[in-house]
Design goal:
about 525 residues; six-stranded antiparallel β-sheet; alpha+beta; Phosphorylase Kinase, domain 1; three-stranded antiparallel β-sheet; disordered C terminus; Serine Threonine Protein Phosphatase 5, Tetratricopeptide repeat
Length: about 525
C-alpha cells in the first residue's frame, strides 16, 4: 500500500464484482485490480475478438460531476498520446450509468511487482526501462502533458520486455497557454515517495517534475529502496525539500558512474538544475555503456528532437529480451522445491486427462480460428511456448506447454506447466467449465508444491469456484490455509492474491487475516 496525500472521502459502498457482465461490446471476464477511483477488468471485445482492460468508475463516485470530469480527463489526456511506450486508449463511454475507459491490456507486471519479486535490476535491464520511459515522457512533453504521478506502479512491463507508462489520471494538460488542473476537485497530488519538491510546495509543475519523479523511480529500481523514507507522508515530503539522497555509486559499486550521474541529475532540488526535457535525458542515456544493453541506441540518432523519437518503440533486442527474462525468471532454488519426478507425474497426469477431454469434446470452449484449433506450433523453448500460448489464449495453446515440454523432463518444464495450468484454470472459470477449473486449481493448491504463490493462487481459485457452484462451506474452508500462506509472499503479491478472492468471501478473509496478525499470534482455525 502506498502512502498518498488523499482527502477525506465519504464511506465507500462495498464494491460489486462485475465479472461476467457485458458492457456494450465488452464481456468483462475478471477483475484485475482496483484503485481509489476505479476498478479494472480484463475483458474481451466481442467485435474484434481481442482482450482489453476496462477501467470502470466506481458507482459511488458516478454521481459526483467532479470525479466524472477527472475520469474523462484521464481518457482524453492518454488518448492524445499515441506511442509504443504509453498504454493506449481505445474507447471511452457510459452505459447504464457506468462510466468506463477501454484501454490496451498489458500482459505482464508493473515495475513495483517486478522489484518485489526480483529485487534491484541489473544495469542493462534498468537502462532499458529508463530509455523506454524517457521516450514516453518525450511524447507527453510534445503534447504539453505532465503525468504528475510517475512511480513504479504506473510503469508496466509487458512479457515481451516492452515498457509502457500508464494512468494519466492526475495529468495536467496545457492548451493555448491555459492549464487544466483537476487537483482542486479533491484528488491526490501524487505519491509522497515519488513527489517532486515543487509538488510538495504546491507550485506549478512541468515536465521537469515528471523527470524528478522518474529519477526517484530509477533510484528505487537500482537501489531497491527509495532515497527518502519516513513513517508519515509529511516526513517524506520534507526530505524531498531539504535532504540529498545517498549516492547511488556508494550503494551499487557495479553501476557505471555515468548512469549514477544521470539519476542524480534527475533528482536535483531545483527544476532548472535537472534535465529540462526528456530529449536531454535521452541524449545522456544513449551515451551510457553497459554490457548487454542495446547498442543501437548509441549511434545513428544525432538529432534526438526529430520525429523519430516520437515513433520510437522497444524492439526485441538483447536488452529487451533480458528485461523480459527478469520479469519472468524465478529463482532456480524455487523450481527445485516443486517436488521432483513425483510431482511431475501428477502434473502430467492431470494435463493428459485434460488434453484427452479436449480431443474428445463435441465443441471447443472458445471460438478460435481453425488453425488454432487444429494445431499450436511447437516453439524452441518451454518459455517461448508459454508466451506463444499467451498470444493465442486458447485451451489447446495452454495444453501445448505440457504436450511439447513434458513436466517430468526438467524443473523448468514443471514451472511453466504450472503457470500454464494457472492460466488454463482461469480460462475454464471464465467460460463456465467449473469442473475442469476445480481440477486445475486443486493441482496448484496441492501441498506437493512448496511454492507459496502457486498454492495461494490455487486456494483462491478453489474458493471462487466453490462459491460459483453454490458450495459455500467448501469455499470458506479454503480461506484459513490461504491466510497462512500470505506471509510467505511479497506485499504486492499478497494484495494480488487477496484481490482474486470473490468479494462475497473477502469479509471473512480479512477477519482471518486480522486474527492471524493479532498480537496474541492466533492462528486461523483450520478445522
Amino acid at each position: 500500500m502506498t502512502n498518498e496525500l488523499t482527502p477525506v472521502e465519504a464511506p465507500e459502498q462495498m464494491p460489486v464484482d462485475l465479472s461476467g457482465r457485458r458492457l456494450g461490446d465488452y464481456h468483462l471476464l475478471r477483475r484485475l485490480g482496483r484503485g481509489g477511483m476505479a476498478e479494472v477488468y480484463l475483458a474481451e471485445q466481442q467485435s474484434l475478438g481481442r482482450q482489453v482492460a476496462v477501467k470502470i468508475l466506481k458507482p459511488s463516485l458516478a454521481g459526483n460531476d467532479s470525479y466524472v470530469r477527472r475520469f474523462m480527463h484521464e481518457a482524453k489526456a492518454a488518448a492524445a498520446l499515441v506511442h509504443a511506450n504509453i498504454v493506449q486508449i481505445h474507447e471511452v463511454g457510459c452505459i447504464d450509468n457506468l462510466h468506463f475507459i477501454v484501454q490496451e491490456y498489458i500482459e505482464g507486471l508493473n515495475l513495483r511487482q517486478v522489484l518485489d519479486r526480483r529485487g534491484p535490476l541489473e544495469a542493462a535491464a534498468a537502462l532499458n526501462v529508463m530509455r523506454q520511459v524517457a521516450a514516453a515522457l518525450h511524447k507527453a512533453g510534445q503534447q504539453k502533458i505532465v503525468h504528475r504521478d510517475i512511480k513504479p506502479e504506473n510503469i508496466m512491463l509487458a512479457a515481451s520486455g516492452e515498457v509502457k507508462v500508464a494512468d494519466f489520471g492526475l495529468a495536467r494538460v496545457e492548451k493555448g497557454g491555459e492549464s487544466v488542473n483537476l487537483t482542486q476537485i479533491g484528488v491526490t497530488m501524487g505519491t509522497p515517495l515519488y513527489m517532486s519538491p515543487e509538488q510538495v510546495e504546491g507550485k506549478p509543475v512541468d515536465t521537469r517534475s515528471d523527470i524528478y519523479s522518474f529519477g526517484i523511480t530509477c533510484y528505487h529500481v537500482l537501489a531497491a529502496r527509495t532515497p527518502f523514507e519516513g513513517d508519515t507522508p509529511l516526513k517524506i515530503a520534507i526530505q524531498h525539500l531539504q535532504n540529498e539522497p545517498r549516492r547511488l555509486e556508494d550503494l551499487r559499486t557495479d553501476l557505471p558512474d555515468s548512469l549514477c550521474r544521470i539519476v542524480h541529475k534527475m533528482l536535483a532540488k531545483r527544476p532548472q538544475d535537472r534535465y529540462q526535457n526528456a530529449t536531454e535525458l535521452l541524449r545522456d542515456l544513449r551515451t551510457v555503456q553497459v554490457e548487454g544493453a542495446d547498442e543501437s541506441w548509441a549511434t545513428g540518432l544525432e538529432d534526438w528532437n526529430l520525429p523519430e523519437i516520437a515513433a520510437m518503440s522497444a524492439s526485441l533486442t538483447e536488452a529487451t529480451q533480458q528485461l523480459a527474462a527478469v520479469m519472468n525468471q524465478r529463482q532456480p532454488s524455487r523450481w527445485k522445491r516443486f517436488g521432483g519426478p513425483a510431482v511431475a507425474m501428477i502434473l502430467a497426469g492431470l494435463l493428459s486427462g485434460v488434453l484427452l477431454a479436449w480431443v474428445s469434446r463435441p465443441a471447443p470452449l472458445l471460438q478460435v480460428t481453425s488453425n488454432q484449433r487444429v494445431n499450436v506450433e511447437r516453439q524452441d523453448t518451454v518459455r517461448d511456448q508459454y508466451f506463444h500460448a499467451i498470444s493465442i489464449g486458447s485451451e489447446e495453446a495452454w495444453l501445448s506447454i505440457a504436450k511439447y515440454f513434458p513436466p517430468a523432463e526438467s524443473e523448468e518444464n514443471q514451472y511453466y506447466a504450472l503457470r500454464g495450468t494457472q492460466r488454463l484454470a482461469e480460462l475454464y472459470q471464465e467460460t463456465g467449465n467449473l469442473d475442469r477449473a476445480l481440477e486445475c486449481f486443486r493441482l496448484l493448491a496441492s501441498p506437493q508444491f512448496d511454492d507459496p504463490y502457486f498454492r495461494a493462487t490455487g486456494l483462491a481459485g478453489l474458493a471462487n469456484v466453490y462459491l460459483a457452484r453454490g458450495e459455500l462451506q467448501q469455499a470458506y474452508q479454503q480461506l484459513p490455509p490461504l491466510v497462512q500462506l500470505l506471509p510467505d509472499l511479497p506485499l504486492e503479491v499478497q494484495q494480488m492474491v487477496i484481490d482474486e478472492v470473490h468479494t462475497r468471501l473477502r469479509t471473512e478473509l480479512r477477519r482471518l487475516i486480522r486474527e492471524f496478525d493479532s498480537p496474541e499470534g492466533a492462528r486461523p482455525n483450520l478445522s
